[in-house]
Amino acid sequence: MTRILGIDPGSRITGYGVIEMDNNRAIYVDCGCIRAVGESLAERLKSIYDGIQAVVETHTPDEVSIEKVFMGKNVDSALKLGQARGAALCAAQTPEALIVEYSPTEIKKAIVGKGRADKTQVQHMVRILLNLQGKLQVDAADALAIALCHGHTRQMLNKLDLGT
């Protein structure tokens, strides 16, 4: 089995989701949100780093998947998101773990079947794919979607014998 940590970075809330892939079957392990605390950006980045590091220590993932930064209309927000993503990447870095990146469109396409799916569609499919009951917090569902995207992508690449 391969344990995968998915990370949905955010400067205020960073979602994480942990799954295990057993052949073609995805098994839910854990998910949650790290709420960045502090008045300054530096304090919030430190809390993201500490939170992801704690998740990595608890779950020891074999592979880590994270969403790529996309450029929206607000440059300042994109820069803050990039810094939050950097803090999460640094915290997730271990000698053992492979780290891969996926665009929002790739993730949505892998989970819902179309790259312009909305968040409710992603949440719904994550619940179905992992056989979960109840409502998922948006950032945690997105992180599980990122982990599932990687889990399914790596399965296909392994079948094609292309590696990950």
Summary?
The chain has 164 residues and is of the alpha/beta class.
Describe this structure in words.
- With 164 residues, this protein is an alpha/beta fold.
- It contains five helices and five strands; from the N terminus they run βββαβαβααα.
- The chain has helices at 41-59, 75-92, 104-111, 119-130, 138-160; strands at residues 2-8, 13-22, 25-35, 63-67, 98-102.
- The protein has a five-stranded mixed beta sheet.
- Strand 4, helix 2 and strand 5 (98-102) form a beta-alpha-beta unit.
Summary keywords:
164 residues; 5 helices; globular
Distance between the termini: 15 Å
Approximate helicity band: 40-55%
* Apparent shape: globular
Q: How big a fraction of the residues is strand?
A: 15-25%
Q: Structural class, from helix and strand content?
A: alpha/beta
Oligomer: single chain
The count of strands amounts to 5
| Helix/strand order, N-terminal first | EEEHEHEHHH
| Total helical segments | 5
Radius of gyration: 15 Å
- Major sheet characteristics: 5 strands, mixed
Unreliable residue runs: none
If strands are numbered along the chain, what order do they take across the biggest sheet? Answer: 3-2-1-4-5
What's the mean pLDDT score?
91
